[in-house]
Amino acid sequence: MIAAWWIIPAAYILDRLIGDPRWLPHPVIGMGKAIRGIEAAIRRRVPARRFKAAGMLLPLSVAGGAFLLTWAAVWLLAQVSPWLSAAAQVALIATTIAAKGLRDAGMQVCADLKRGDLNAARRSLGMIVGRDTAHLEPPEIARGAVETVAENIVDAVVSPLFYALIGGAPLAMAYRAVNTLDSMVGYKNEKYMDLGWASARLDDAANYIPARLTVLLLVCAAWLQSHSAKRAWRMVRRDAKLHPSPNSGYPESAVAGALGIRLGGENVYHGVKSFRAYMGEKTRETEADDIERASRLLLGVSSGFAALCGLGLYLFGTGLWWS
User: Which end of the chain is less packed: N or C, by CB atoms within 10 Å?
Assistant: First the structure.
């Protein structure tokens, strides 16, 4: 394979330009079908008492399969032309990134709020969060959008770029498979407590370093964008570990601190109230403009990290296993 320094920056630029057009087949769709098929096979053939052991089959088969298939495709193309292989890696890595999609989704909520169309804003937010949105008021709608943008900076941008830097398109695609597994079966409920535990734990482990790296990137982006980098760092140290996720609290508390708002609080899921620990200090009400500010932080982090990945490959690429 070829580890050209420009592969990761080019993949990021490609995502920023076209995102994930609906007419173009996306690997995540195939991953989702594979997950559902393997889950159905396990439920048919494995006794419920053995679901915990069988749960390891999902990440092994789906993430392992994604890695091997991508590696084989890139390797075969390299036999034809190293540049064809490099171009394929650009396209494949771009599918693992969702900077444009995440920003666009957040900014749609922002635009609806600024128009004063609460019903549209609630619907737009409902497309990207799991909580009930039908009766939310503007500050809560804005909070939900900011939380989503902040939390997903890790798994939509930094993590796939991090794994692309280490292992090219194959490892980036394996990460996307792990993240898809977590979103589909990594729930702590009766249906998936045993079958999805391995997928959820692997996702936590995969995002552990990228989540903490994201804090450093967010602090730098906050300083460059004239937000409070000092407060962002302080809120991370104070609040990040209060989040039920071992990773999500880091970007959320950093964004809350940078913007001077408070995230977390009461949410409703399928009619049931749930309280999530507060992140940050409430210096004012959360507003539509905070979604735009969070989106700018997202773009600052993602473009900065893509550039750093390119620089790293330029300086040290010959030492990487996929070079």
Answer: C
Q: Which residues of 150-179 are buried (b: 16+ CB within 10 A; e: fewer)?
A: bbbbbbbbbbbbbbbbebbbbbbbbbbbbb
Residue 317: other Cβ atoms inside 10 A: 17
Task: Enumerate residues 6+ apart whose C-beta is below 8 A from 278.
Answer: 239, 242, 262, 263, 264, 265
241: three-class secondary structure by DSSP: helix
The residues, ordered by sequence, that sit 6+ positions from 239 with a Cβ below 8 Å of its Cβ are 249, 253, 256, 277, 278, 279, 280
Distance CA 135, CA 138 (A): 10
pTM, to two decimals: 0.94
Per the CB < 8 A criterion, the answer to whether 176 and 15 are in contact is no
- Summarised one tens digit per residue, pLDDT across range 36-72 is 999 999 999 999 889 999 999 999 999 999 999 999 9
Question: What is the C-alpha separation between 150 and 256, in angstroms, rounded?
Answer: 9
Q: Name the residue among 161, 172, 143, 141 with its Cα closest to residue 99.
A: 161
Q: Per-block average pLDDT, block size 10, for the chain (323 residues)? A: 82 95 88 95 92 93 97 94 93 97 97 97 96 96 98 97 95 97 92 94 97 98 98 98 96 98 94 93 96 98 96 74 55
φ/ψ of residue 279, rounded to 5: -120, 120
Parent domain of 283: 7-319
Q: How many domains does the chain have?
A: 1
